[in-house]
Design goal:
This protein is an all-alpha fold. It has helices at residues 44-47, 62-72, 92-112, 115-132, 135-150, 154-174, 181-202, 215-223, 231-246, 249-253, 260-275; strands at residues 12-14, 19-21, 51-52. It has eleven helices and three strands, in the order ββαβαααααααααα.
Length: 279
C-alpha cells in the first residue's frame, strides 16, 4: 500500500486553534504532549482539520487519534459502538478498565454526534465512579458532558471528556487509589486501538500502520499497566507486548508488511483482552 502523502505525514495540524506539533527528531528528548482540545464549539469543517501521525510525540488525545481516522477514512461510528455491558462487576481494577472503555466510547459517540449515546454512557460513567468511590467528585463533570451533548457542542464534549479523565485521576489520588488511574488510560486505549484496527481492516487506507499509531503508543499503554500484578492486567500487558513485537520497526525493516492479516490478528487480540473486563 502507498504511504500517506506529505500533507498527511504532518504530525498534527489543528487549523481551528492554530496548533501545530512538528515531528520529533529520531534522537533526543520527547516534546510535551499536545494541549487539550479546545473548549469552544467549532463547525465540522474546522473540527475535521486535524491530521495526526503517530510519531514520537507521546500519546495523542483521543479526539486527535479519532480525527485521523475520520480524515483518512470514512468510519461509520455508530456501527462501531461496543455492546452494552450487562454484567455487574465488583473488582476495582476491572471497574477502572471499564471506566476507561466508557470514556473511549463517549469519544466515539462524540465523533458520531450522538447525544442519546452520550447520555447512556454518562450513566455508565457515573455508575462506575460510584463503585470506585468518586461519584460525587465527578457528578458535575458528567452533568456538563450531558448538557453539552444536548446543545450539540461537540468540541465542548470532547474537552470535558478529557477534563473528566484528569479529574478522575486527581480524585483517585486524593483517596489513595492512584494505582487505579493508569488502568483507566489502559482501558481507554485498548478500546481506541480496537476501533482503529477495526476501521483500517475494513477500509482501503493508504497507510495501514495508522491502525496502531506507533510502537511508542504501545510503549506508553504497556507502561500504564506495570504498577499492577493482578491476573487480568498481567494478561493485558502480555498481549500488548505481543502486538508490540508484531508492530516493531525491526519487523518493518525486515520486509514485514502491515497487511490485513496482521491488522486482523491485532484486532482479535485487542478484542479478546477487552472481553476480560467488559462482558
Amino acid at each position: 500500500m502507498r504511504h500517506l502523502t506529505s500533507a498527511l505525514a504532518t504530525s498534527l495540524v489543528l487549523a481551528a486553534t492554530g496548533l501545530v506539533v512538528i515531528d520529533a527528531p529520531a534522537q533526543g528528548p520527547l516534546p510535551p504532549a499536545p494541549p487539550p482540545f479546545p473548549t469552544e464549539d467549532l463547525p465540522d469543517s474546522q473540527l475535521e482539520a486535524a491530521l495526526v501521525r503517530g510519531h514520537r510525540i507521546g500519546l495523542p488525545s483521543p479526539p486527535e487519534f479519532l480525527f485521523v481516522l475520520q480524515k483518512v477514512g470514512s468510519p461509520r461510528w455508530r456501527q462501531l459502538y461496543y455492546p452494552v455491558l450487562r454484567g455487574e462487576e465488583s473488582d476495582r481494577s476491572k471497574i477502572a478498565l471499564r471506566f476507561g472503555l466508557s470514556i473511549a466510547e463517549a469519544h466515539i459517540a462524540t465523533m458520531a454526534r450522538d447525544a442519546q449515546k452520550i447520555r447512556d454512557i454518562a450513566n455508565d460513567l457515573q455508575r462506575h465512579a460510584k463503585v470506585l468511590g468518586i461519584g460525587d467528585a465527578l457528578s458535575d463533570k458528567v452533568r456538563s458532558i450531558n448538557h453539552l451533548a444536548e446543545a450539540k457542542s461537540w468540541a465542548g464534549v470532547a474537552f470535558e471528556l478529557e477534563s473528566l479523565h484528569t479529574t478522575t485521576d486527581e480524585s483517585l489520588e486524593a483517596q489513595r487509589d492512584a494505582k487505579l488511574a493508569p488502568l483507566i488510560k489502559t482501558g481507554q486505549w485498548l478500546r481506541l486501538l480496537h476501533i482503529s484496527t477495526s476501521v483500517v481492516s475494513e477500509e482501503d487506507f493508504p497507510d495501514t500502520s495508522i491502525a496502531i499509531s506507533s510502537c511508542w503508543t504501545l510503549d506508553q499503554i504497556i507502561a500504564s499497566t506495570t504498577a499492577s500484578e493482578e491476573a487480568t492486567v498481567v494478561t493485558i500487558r502480555d498481549q500488548l507486548s505481543k502486538i508490540q513485537r508484531l508492530w516493531s520497526p525491526e519487523k518493518l525493516a525486515g520486509g514485514h508488511k502491515f497487511d490485513d492479516a496482521l491488522i486482523e490478528e491485532c484486532n482479535g487480540r485487542l478484542g479478546n483482552v477487552i472481553q476480560l473486563f467488559a462482558k
